[in-house]
Amino acid sequence: MPVAHYENFPVASLLLPARLRHPVSVIYRFARSADDFADEGDLGAAARLALLDGYRAELRRLEAGEPPASRLFRELRDVIAAHALPLAPFHDLIDAFSQDVTKTRYASFAEVMSYCRRSADPVGRLMLHLYGRSDAANVASSDAICSALQLINFWQDVEIDFLKDRI
């Protein structure tokens, strides 16, 4: 499913097994919309963080077994249940996107890698769970690949980030 976005790429393509296309699409919509709260539009920091806090509240509802308020989170609940997905990666993503709102400078490569652990690695971990391949060796390899892809994304967006005063 191509998504109209400046970082457009095929999601849930025919290359995925049919049984995983919908779960991948739902996870993508969660991550893309949360990331857009942090990075897109003209909202101020407080409004962006409030939107992300709304997603946190929805995740807490899922954890408590309460019904989610939004359609996206009802779909996410079903995907999480069907595939026994852990909630920690979803929380990590929200934490990373919140950091996008509040932190614009990184003093060291270690700080950047800490960000990658929460912004990119969770996606790979969720994919491993969907495929039933989340053993320690695969997680370590996935984390390395996802962090590398995040770094590549930073490098390709240097001009965009500089214009947004993010270094």
Summary keywords:
8 helices, about 0% strand
Largest sheet: none
Poorly predicted residue ranges = 1-6
Name the structural class: mainly alpha
Straight-line N-to-C gap: 32 Å
Helix segment tally? 8
Q: Could you give the count of β-strands? A: 0
- How much of the sequence lies in strands comes to under 5%
Integer average pLDDT: 90
In quaternary terms, these chains amount to single chain
Helix amount = over 70%
Task: Note down, in words, how this protein is organized.
This protein is mainly alpha-helical and 167 residues long. It is 71% helix and 0% strand. The chain contains 8 helices and no strands. α1 packs parallel to α4, α5 packs across α7 and α6 packs across α7. It is globular. The N terminus is likely disordered.
TL;DR of this structure?
The chain is mostly helical. Helices cover 71% and strands 0% of the residues. It has helices spanning 18-39, 45-64, 71-83, 88-102, 109-119, 121-131, 136-156, 158-163.
Chart the SSEs and their pairings:
Layout: H1 18-39, H2 45-64, H3 71-83, H4 88-102, H5 109-119, H6 121-131, H7 136-156, H8 158-163
Helix pairs in contact: 1-3, 1-4, 1-6, 2-4, 4-5, 4-6, 5-7, 6-7
